[in-house]
Each structure stands twice: as C-alpha cells, then as structure tokens.
Amino acid sequence: MIIHDNIRTYNKDKAPKKATNLTLNTEVLAEAKKLGINISKACDAFLESLVKQEKERLWKLENAKFISEYNQITEEEGLPLDKWRTF
Q1: 3 DSSP β-pair partners
Q2: Could you say which of 2, 21, 55, 57 is the most buried, measured as most Cβ atoms within 10 Å of its Cβ?
C-alpha cells in the first residue's frame, strides 16, 4: 500500500522497521498472545491510525479559518458552478 502525505510518499509494507521497547499491560499482552495476535503489527497499525488522526486534527485546526470563511461564502452565494449542476 502506498501512503501519501504532504511531505513524502512511502510504501508502508517496505518501510524500514526499528526495534522499540514498549511497556504493555501484562494481562492484555498475555491474552493477545493466546489469541495469536501479532503484537508488532497490531501496535504498528494502531500507531499509524493514531498518527493519521492527529495529522487530520492538526490540519483542521490550521485551516479552520479558511474552512469557516469558505462555508460562510457558500451559504451566502451558493456552491461554485451550481448553476451547471444537472442533479
């Protein structure tokens, strides 16, 4: 899968890996192992999701003024090219 962001493009399946020490709840870890859950993959997938959410949140904060102004203009003037809409 190719991931695109505003900085770079990389293939997450071929991205280099780095060994990391984590402190996890021992009970949850034991259950995950019993269930055959790959801890590294699960942590990596969750962290990827968390990073994406945080980037989206920051983007919305950084662009809040523009979004608000655009929405106000759209409410007052309608959608651009709306007169050519056929549905």
Answers
A1: 10
A2: 55
Burial 5-34 (b: 16+ CB within 10 A, else e): eeeeeeeeeeeeeeeeeeeeeeeeeeeeee
* Helix, strand, coil shares, percent, the chain, to 5: 55, 5, 35
Distance CA 50, CA 69 (A): 29
pTM recorded for the entire structure: 0.66
Counting every residue, how long is the chain? Answer: 87
* SS3 category, 9: strand
Going by the DSSP 8-state scheme, the letter that residue 21 receives in this structure is -
